[in-house]
Amino acid sequence: MPDLLLELFSEEIPARMQRRAAEDLKKLVTDALVERGFLYEGAKAFATPRRLALNIVGLPVKGQDVREERKGPRVGSPEGAIQGFLKGAGLTSIEQAKIESDPKKGEFYVAIIEKPGLPTESVLAEILPQIVKTFPWPKSMRWGAASAEPGSLRWVRPLHSIVCTFGPETEDPEVVPFEVDGIVASNVTYGHRFMAPDAIRVKRFDDYVTALERAKVVLDADRRKDIILHDAKDLAFAQGLQLVEDEGLLEEVAGLVEWPVVLMGSFDESFLEIPPEVIRTTIRANQKCFVLFDPRMDKLANKFLLTANLVAKDGGKTIVGGNERVVQARLSDAKFFWQTDQKTKLEDRLEKLKSIVFHEKLGTQFERVERIAALAKELAPIVGAEPALAERAARLAKADLVTEMVGEFPELQGLMGRYYAAIEGEHPSVALAIEEHYKPLGPSDRVPTDPVSVAVALADKIDTLVGFWAIDEKPTGSKDPFALRRAALGVIRLVLENELRLELYDAVKRALEVLTAQGRAGEGDPEKAELILLNLVQEFFFDRLKVSLRDKGARHDLIDATIGLGDWDDLLMIVRRVEALGSFLDAEDGANLLAGYRRAANILRIEEKKDNKAYDGEPNRTLVHERGLPEEKVLFDVLDAASRHAREHVMREDFEGAMKALAELRPAVDAFFDKVTVNSEDLALRENRLKLLNALREATRTVADFSRIEG
C-alpha cells in the first residue's frame, strides 16, 4: 500500500523542542486522517536541528465510498418541502428519489446519496496546510515581508521548504499539491548546511533516508545518540579514561547536530582543584561537553569530549581549539568563584538572606531558615540526631544561596554549601545535611540516611507544606507550582525508608505554631489551625501515601482500612498494617474471615435499621452458655480469646501476629453461620446473637476497618 513522506525544513529547531514537535506532527496528521476514515499501518516521526519528518505507511489510495439513504417528506407534501429535500440531498428532480411505504406513515420519498471516496492526495492537501499553520510550538516567530500581514505563518524558526510525496512502493510517488504562505510542497530537500547544502530530489521514505545519509544528515535522533555515545566511549578508552555518562546532555547534543563527530579537548590541570561537580556543570552548561574520569588517579581527567556537526578538513583542530579557549575561560571564572566564596563564612552570609524573599506571604529566606532550624531541633530526637547539630545544619542550609558559585550555577545549591562547610570545619553531619536536605527530589533520587540530614530534610519539606497550606496555595488539578506533592512524597519516603516513628500531626502542628509566631499564618485562630492540620495530614499526605504504596503494588482500600484505628498519623505504622493485612487476606483464613465479617455486618446493618437501635452491648455470657447452641458458645469463647490476643500483638506492633490471632476465629465463625439462626423467635436469644455478631465486627477492628475492604 502507498506511504506518505512529509518533511518540514527550517532554520534551527531548539533541541529541547524536537522530540515533542515530532510526536505532535505525527499525532496531528494521523488523527486528522483517522477522523476522515483513512486508516494506516504505521507511522513514525523524526527530528533533526533543521527538519521535522513524518512517514506514514499503509495508507489507502482513496477513501471509502459512502452510500447514504436520506428520508424525505411524504408523497403529496407541499412544494416547499419537496424543494428543500431535493436541495439537501443534491437532487435536481423528484424523479431521482424513490418512494417507500410505511404502514403507519404512508408513502414517502427517499434519496440515495452515493459519494465516491476522495483521493488520499486531495485529503492530504486539505489537512496539511492547516496543521502547519496551527502547529503548537511553545514559541514561534514570523519573518520576512509577509510577517506584516495578519494571519501570516508562524514557525519556530523560518520555514524554508516542504517535502510531501505519496504513492505505492512500485511506482514513483506523486507530490501532494498544496502550499503554505507561498511555500509550495515539492520533492526537493537539502542536506547538511556545510558539507552538502545543495538541493536533493527524493521519492519515498527509504530513498529520502538514504539520500540524507549521503548528504551527511542522520535523520533518527536515537541513532545520532548511539553514534555519539559509542564514539565518546571509544575515544575515552583509547586514552585510558572513562566517559562520565549524562543522558540529559546526550539527548540535548543529539538535537544540536545532524552529522555527529566526537572530538577530544583538554584544559589546564590546575583547574582540577575545583570540585568535580563544578567542573562538570561548567563544561556542560557552557559548552555542552562531556567530562572524563581517570580511574588510575580516581578523579576527573583534565579532558573533555565535544560533539561537532561536521567533518573538519583539519581533523577538528580548529573546533577543538575554540572549545578549549571557552572552557578555559569558564573554568577560570569557576575557580575565581570557588576561591572568592571561601573568603566569607557561611554563617556570615546569613544576614544577606534577609533581603531574599522566599514568598511574599511567607517572608524571607532568613525567616524560613529560622523556622526550619526550630523544627529540625525538635525533630532531631525522634530521628536519632543531636538537636544542636540539626539546628546548626538547618541554620546554614540556605547560606550558599548567596555565594558566587550558586549565583552562577543554581543547580549546585546544597552541594556547594557542603564543600564550604567542610572547609570551615563544621561537623561532617552538618556539612552533609546542607547538601542532602533538599533530597529526595524525585522518585529515583536517593533518600538521606544520616540522622542530621533526615531531621533537616523533614523540617524543610514540612515547613514548605505547612506554609503554603496556611496561605491557601494548595495544588489544584495538574497544577502544583510550588512542588508540594513532591515535598509530601519526600516526607513519606524519608519516614518509611528510614523506618521512623514520626507522629506527623504533631510535627505539622509544631511547624504551624512556628509559622504563626512569625505572624505568617494569621492570628493563630485555633479552628483555622485545626482545619489546616487535618486537611494537610489526613487528606493530602494520605493521598500521596496511597499513590506511593499503589506504585509499589499495594491496594488503596487496604490503606483506607488501616487509617483511623489509632496511630493514624504514624506513616510507618500504617504501612506495616497494610502489609500484614494484605498477606492475611491473600491467605485462605483471611479471605474466609472477611466473608464471615461481611455476613455479620450485613445482618447487623439490616436488623439495626429495622429495629432502629444498635446492638453494641456486651453479649450475655450466662444466656449464651445456658440457652445457646454449642456453636455460639464456641464463638463466644473464641472471640474473647482472639480479641485479647490480637490486642496484645498490636500493642507490641506485631501485626502479623494480630492477624494470626484473628485467624483463630475462622472455624468458629463458619460453624456459627452454618448451625445458628440469628433471628430466633426467642427475642432474648436474637438480641444476644446480634450482640455476638457486633463483638465479631469489633474484634476485626483491632487490626483494620474491614468495612473499607473492597472485592
Count of beta strands: 18
Q: Can you tell me the CATH architecture of the largest domain?
A: Orthogonal Bundle
Q: Biggest sheet: strands side by side, in what order? A: 2-3-1-7-8
| Spatial gap, N to C terminus | 49 Å
Number of helices: 25
The mean pLDDT is 92
- CATH class identity of the largest domain: Mainly Alpha
Q: What is the CATH fold-level name of the largest domain?
A: Hypothetical protein af1432
* Count of all domains: 5
Low-pLDDT residue intervals, each spanning 5 or more residues: none
Q: What is the 3D form?
A: flat
Biggest sheet overview: 5 strands, antiparallel
What amount of the residues lies in strands? Answer: 5-15%
* Computed Rg: 37 Å
Find the structural class using helix and strand composition.
alpha+beta
Fraction of residues in helix: 40-55%
What does the model show?
- This protein is α+β, with helices and mostly antiparallel strands.
- The protein has five domains: 3-61 and 119-214, Alpha-Beta Plaits; 66-115, no CATH class; 221-341, no CATH class; 347-553, Hypothetical protein af1432, CATH 1.10.3210; 580-708, Isoleucyl-tRNA Synthetase, Domain 1 (Orthogonal Bundle).
- The protein has 25 helices and 18 strands.
- The strands form six sheets. Strands 2-3-1-7-8 form a five-stranded antiparallel sheet, covered by helices on one side. Strands 13-15-16-14 form a four-stranded antiparallel sheet, with helices on both faces. A three-stranded antiparallel sheet has the order 4-6-5, covered by helices on one side.
- β5 and β6 form a beta hairpin.
- α9 packs antiparallel against α16 (504-517) and α10 (387-396) packs across α13 (428-436).
- The protein is flat, with a radius of gyration of 37 Å.
- The model has no long low-confidence stretch (mean pLDDT 92).
